[in-house]
Known about the structure:
The protein has two helices and 20 strands. The protein is of the alpha+beta class.
Amino acid sequence: MLGRCQTYTSEYKSAVTNLVLRVERAQREIDYLEYLREADVCVESEDKTLTEKLIQEAEEEKKIRNLLNSSCDNMLMGIKSLKIVKKTTDTHGSWMKDAASNSQKVYFLIGSRNKTVWEFANIRAFMEDSTKPAPRKLILTHSWQGTGQVIHKGFLFFHNQGTLNEIIKYNLQKRTVEDRMLLPGGAGRGLVYQHSPSTYIDLAVDEHGLWAIHSGPGIYGHLVLTKIEPGTLGVEHSWDTPCRSQDAEASFLLCGVLYVVYSPGGHGPHRITCVYDPLGTIGEEDLPKLFFPRRPRSHSMIHYNPRDKQLYAWNDGNQIIYKLQTKRKQPLE
């Protein structure tokens, strides 16, 4: 009897042990399946995040292509010639035509801080002070800062002196402030170009419209390029460029591409050594060596006019026109 009980007890213990082992194995399988499920969720989450990122990048690229979509497909290949139009004693200043109209008027802005604009009937009247009619004197309601002014469809755009980053849109015909904006992205905290000691925001006009260039954070930081809608003064897009402000003296845009002019020490040679294309169609490797004719000092300003396809520049008191050589860019795939 006792032996039979011991046999039953041994069998019972064995059955319990086997049951425990089966339960433990089942639990391990459940844990493993739970692990696989969580891993699948993580993978799905990572895949979803990656997909959303790719979609966002594609939408951003499409937005930029639509923003810069025009018939303009030229790229700079060389500086053909130099013409000194006028000589003055003023080291800093800017001069220009309206970059978005057929007007022959020439505007003359002396100094890096001023509020007097001289309007000449045409380039001949500007070259020859004795030529009539006499220039019209326009006194602005605000002074400009630096030499980054531009004129677009009858409006003068300039950095308002005494402000960090305020851009004023001034109606030259009515002689009133039409609108104003605060340029974001840390604009106005540092010089745009090392060798232009008074310009904190440089404005530009090309075939795509109105742009602003300013320096990013840090001493001699990278340049920031911003596309502005001239009608509303709304920011359309901004790009952090690889071009640095160190040793830079000026820049301009041509067909949506930023060309930055550098001169070590500020005395030349004046050379374009950084090019930024938001569409990525051209880079420095696609361009020849782009030198400007040697000048004794750095340029106070260089602005492109998309109407006559020339550069208007100010260098050591000389008002200069540079004629350009261009060729067609490679089409986007």
